[in-house]
Amino acid sequence: xxxxxxxxxxxxxxxxxxxxxxxxxxxxxxxxxxxxxxxxxxxxxxxxxxxxxxxxxxxxxxxxxxxxxxxxxxxxxxxxxxxxxxxxxxxxxxxxxxxxxxxxxxxxxxxxxxxxxxxxxxxxxxxxxxxxxxxxxxxxxxxxxxxxxxxxxxxxxxxxxxxxxxxxxxxxxxxxxxxxxxxxxxxxxxxxxxxxxxxxxxxxxxxxxxxxxxxxxxxxxxxxxxxxxxxxxxxxxxxxxxxxxxxxxxxxxxxxxxxxxxxxxxxxxxxxxxxxxxxxxxxxxxxxxxxxxxxxxxxxxxxxxxxxxxxxxxxxxxxxxxxxxxxxxxxxxxxxxxxxxxxxxxxxxxxxxxxxxxxxxxxxxxxxxxxxxxxxxxxxxxxxxxxxxxxxxxxxxxxxxxxxxxxxxxxxxxxxxxxxxxxxxxxxxxxx
Amino acid sequence: xxxxxxxxxxxxxxxxxxxxxxxxxxxxxxxxxxxxxxxxxxxxxxxxxxxxxxxxxxxxxxxxxxxxxxxxxxxxxxxxxxxxxxxxxxxxxxxxxxxxxxxxxxxxxxxxxxxxxxxxxxxxxxxxxxxxxxxxxxxxxxxxxxxxxxxxxxxxxxxxxxxxxxxxxxxxxxxxxxxxxxxxxxxxxxxxxxxxxxxxxxxxxxxxxxxxxxxxxxxxxxxxxxxxxxxxxxxxxxxxxxxxxxxxxxxxxxxxxxxxxxxxxxxxxxxxxxxxxxxxxxxxxxxxxxxxxxxxxxxxxxxxxxxxxxxxxxxxxxxxxxxxxxxxxxxxxxxxxxxxxxxxxxxxxxxxxxxxxxxxxxxxxxxxxxxxxxxxxxxxxxxxxxxxxxxxxxxxxxxxxxxxxxxxxxxxxxxxxxxxxxxxxxxxxxxx
Lengths: 432, 432
Ligand SMILES: [Zn+2]
Ligand SMILES: [Zn+2]
What we know:
The structure is a homodimer.
Chain A: H1 12-30, H2 34-42, H3 64-69, E1 83-88, E2 98-102, H4 103-119, E3 127-130, H5 138-150, E4 153-155, H6 162-171, E5 176-178, H7 181-193, E6 205-208, H8 215-225, E7 228-235, E8 240-246, E9 253-255, E10 260-265, E11 279-285, E12 296-302, E13 317-318, E14 323-324, E15 329-331, E16 334-336, H9 338-345, E17 351-361, E18 366-374, H10 383-401, E19 406-411, E20 425-427
Parallel strand pairs in A: 3-4, 3-5, 5-6, 6-7, 17-20, 18-19
Antiparallel strand pairs in A: 1-2, 7-8, 8-9, 9-13, 10-11, 11-12, 12-14, 15-16, 17-18
The structure holds zinc ion (2 copies).
C-alpha cells in the first residue's frame, strides 16, 4: 500500500504510545493559557497526572460555549507573534469561535489533508478543483493547502457559479473536486440542461462533506458523474478538513489518531458509549501548539465502527455523521434526526433530488409534512400509483421514526434550491 | 535598513547582472512551449542571441490576446504534474487568461510579497486582515501567502461585510489591512455611522491597489484612519500582487527587478519612451518556471521615476498607475483618462467621496457630465457659492483635459456605492 507518510500505517501500539506522549505534551502546552490552567488545576490534573490513555477521561470537557467565552484569544498558548493564521466561525449568531494557528500548526494540518487525499488515490498528476468558499471558512484554505502540499494542480474556484465551474473543469480536465453533495446534484442538472451527460465529465474523485447526507445520496452522485465520492470530516475547532477521511473501502472514516484522540460519549451523561453505539464525538488535538483543545464536545453524532479496516490502517474508523445533537427536533414527544428521514426516502427509486421537512402546528397538535420530489418519469397522471407510493413512504417513515408524517409528492425541481448547504427542515411551529 | 532578503538591497550592477543571467534562463525555459519556441525562432532569437540586456528589445511582445490564444495550458513550460496552482481571470468576457505555477513559483511569489510588506514595516507581530476576495483572483491567496510567509497573524476575512470586518479588526486589533481604496472610505463611513472615530481604529498600515485612485484619494483615507496607505502593484500575468510596492518614502513603487524586467513603451509604436515619460508598462518574468512570460504588454500606463530613491534601494521605481490604455475614452476628439479628472476634482476641499463621469449624446454631439459629491458642510443653500464652485471646477477640468464638461454638484452619499471596484465612467452614448 502506497502511503503519504509513515504515521498512516502505524500499528495500534505505535499509535497508542504516540498518543500518550503527545497528550502529555498537549496538556503541558494547554496550561500556557489561564483558561486551561485553571480548569486543569480545579480538576486536580497536574503535569504527572496522565499515566495512561485512560486518564484522558479525568480531563474536563471543552464546550463550544467555553470557546466562545475565550474569544478572541483567551486560549492562545503561544506568544501572539507566533500565530500566522486565524480562522473563525461566521458568528452570525452570538460570539464567534476563533482558532489561531502557528506555522507548524498550518504545516501539520496541510500534511493531514494531503494524507487524506493521497489515501484515496489523489496524486500530483491530478487536477483538483476546490469548490469551497475560501476566507475564514476552513474548507477553502484548509483543503487548498493540502492539495498543494500533495502537488496537485489546484484550482481555487470557490463556490457556486456553475457555468464557470463546468468551464474550468472541462478546460483543465479536472479529475478531483471538493464539492458539497447537494451542489454536485446541481452541477449534474446544469450539465444535463446543457445537453451533456455528467458521466462524460472528467471527474473521477469527489471529496464530500460539510453537510449531512445519506449513503443513498452518495451513491446517487457517484452514479451521476461515474466517479467515487469519499466522505470527509473536519471541524474548524480541530483545524477543519483533514480530521477523518474514508479509505478506498468507503466503509467509515479513519480518524488520524496520531493527531487527535477521538471519543464517543452519551450526549446527556458524557459517559463513553460502547463501541458501535451512536453518541457524540469528542475530540482532543494532539499536535496543536497555537490553540490546543482538550476533549471538545463536537455535537456531531456518530459511532466507532468495530473491528479493523480491510485496508490495513489501524487508525480507528467512525461512521458517517448521523446528525447533529442540535439538529434533532422533537415531534409528538419523539426525538427525530432529519438524516433518519432522508435515509428512508432516498431508498425509493421514484424519489428525485430534493425533499423538505415542514413542522407545523394545526391548532390541535404538531404536524410533520414531508415534501418529496418525484422523478419526471414517475410523476405520471396515474393518481392511484402516486397515492400508493405516498402511503408506502409514510409507512416506512413511521417504522423508522415512530411518527406518521403527512407525505406529499411534488414535481422534480419544484422545491427551493440553494447553492450552499441544503435546508432540509423548516420549523413553522409557534415558539412555546 | 532592515530588509527581508539580500536581493532587496542589491546594487544596480548586481541587479543588471542577475537580470541578464535570469533572462537567458527564462528564454531557455520559455522555449519548452511551442508558442514561444516558434515565436522566438521566427524572430531569429536562439539560445545565444541575448548578450546584453539591450537585446531584450529584440524579443517580440506578448499580448493579452496571445495569452488568450494559448488558454488553457498552451504556455506551460513544465510537465503538468509540476503545477500546483492555477489562477485565472474571471473570463466574463471572452476567453480567460490562465496562469499556472509550480511550487517554486508559489514560494518565490510569497517571498516577493513578504518583501513588499516588510519594506513598509509590517512584521510578524502584526495582525493582518486580508479584505480581498480569495479564489481565482490573485489578491486573496497571493497576499495571504506573503503575509503568512512574513509570519503575520493573517485573517482571511475576504471582501465586503463591513460589520464583520469592523468586528474582526477590533477584536484582534488588526494593525495592517489589504483593502480597496474605495472600500476604505465605505468602512470609514460605516464606523462614523456607528458613532465611532475611524482614527481610533487600530489600523496603522493599509496595502492598497487593484483600482485606480489619486494621490489626493490616498491622503484622504490615510487621514480618515490615521494610518499609512502604501500603493501595491501587480497583475495576475506576473503572478499577482508583489510586483511593485512603495517604500516608506511613498514616492513611487519599487519594481522587484531581480524577479522582473520592466520597460515602458509608447502604446502605439511599442518603442521605449524616455525615462520620466508616460507609456505602457511592459513586463518580463525572470523567476517563473511554470509559465514564463516575455515582454508582456500590461496596458497599464505609468512612467519610471528618474533618479535613485532616498531609501537606498536600487530597484527602479514606477509612478502610480495613471490609467489603463483601454480605459481611455475619446470625447470631442480628445483622449481622456478618468484619472485626470479625479486628480483635478479631488484637489477641492469641498469635494466629497465620490464622483461619476457620464458620457452622453444630446443628438447634436457628445456631452460629458461630471457629477461631484459635495461635503455636507459645504452643501449649503448659498446657491451663489455653489454655482461659483461649479464654474471653477469646470474651468480647471478644461485646463487639464481640453474639453469643458458640464459639472453637477450633488449631495454626499447620493451617487451609487459599490463594495467592489468603483465605477467611475458611464458611457451612455449610442455605439457608432
Ligand atoms: Zn481503511
Ligand atoms: Zn525607496
